[in-house]
Amino acid sequence: MRHELLKVDGLTKRFGGLTAVSDVSLMVARGEIHAVIGPNGAGKSSLINLLSGDLMPTSGKIMLEGRDITAQSPNVRCRAGIGRSFQKTTIFQERTVGENVRIAAQGARPGSIAMWRSAHQEATNRKAVEAALSDAGLAHQIDTPARMMSHGEQRQLEVAMVLATDPRIVLLDEPLAGMGHGEAKQMAQVISALKDNRGVLLVEHDMDVVFAIADRLTVMADGQVIASGPVDEVRRDSKVRAAYLGEGEEAA
Known about the structure:
- The protein is globular.
- The chain is of the alpha/beta class.
- The protein is built from nine helices and ten strands.
- It has two domains: 4-81 and 167-251, Rossmann fold (3-Layer(aba) Sandwich); 90-151, no CATH class.
- Mean pLDDT is 89; it is low at 112-116 and 248-252.
- Strands 6-7-8-3-9-10 form a six-stranded mixed beta sheet, with helices on both faces. Strands 2-1-4-5 form a four-stranded antiparallel beta sheet, covered by helices on one side.
């Protein structure tokens, strides 16, 4: 039985006369990757911004393990268990890999940036950094300056920074953007492993990766969900083939 972590009901966001997200409902369970796809302008990034708290909805509800977080700020949601990455790289270029992840770990724990930190808190942060780097495949680069890393490695570092906040739900907004084949393959392996004891909501344009690692798939167009369910089922949906994947052999 699927263990529900994140549930969205009737989520809508209007900007004046423009409706970016319209009556979206979906669920992310522990141990699964739920991918959201759709053409540019479909509302995918707006959806992630609503889930992270960077946008407030016009209507609808967001529940995290049965707790209503619809009106909560991004900081509160982070501490409640929602972590996210962004489309653009958001790391400290002059800091080392380990320092970047440590900053993220400290920021997610109340009081951990205070001048006088307890030994217990320091140990907790250190363990969080080590675990996050290991899960992101960067344990061997802990002392590497972030500016010396490749684009793909920097995106892995962003994932490590998210993991350092100890999220139960990980929101990834186009994490493979700008990567070559080799880097994309490495990142796909990292993402696939993230679902252990977590839920992952992934917005991504690389369909080969989506079909290879996603457990469930939601397709959006014009701010609305046109299909949602197990990946193979959604791929066969006629509305999806017409609106996004295209007709014929390429959509099979």
